[in-house]
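Below is a concrete protein record.
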Amino acid sequence: MPLLHIAHRSDWEAAERSGSYEISTRGHVLSDVGFIHASHPHQVSRVAAHVHGDDPEDLVVLVIDPSAVRADGVEIREEDGGAGELFPHIYGAIRPAWVVEARPARFEDESFAW
């Protein structure tokens, strides 16, 4: 099952050029937080509403291959995101090679589409 991460399109495009994506979540970077927040497919809409509901920037959903992450020696931990629900956290920068697709994302009629 892929991991998902919601990104500003501009941040992702910069990462494709530089070879490294280091945004943990909106307004926070990997060096401050220690990991990059990710979601399972059934969680991404709620995360989008909570974190990006008022976000005016273009968004993409990064579809990440967890086996590629682990093959490069980067740890993925399932950790409590609050109220006992486990979310995947990636303990390192995301490499573009791990991303199998960057899907355009948007809010439509108060629901998140990707």
Helices lie at 9-18, 30-33, 44-52, 66-71.
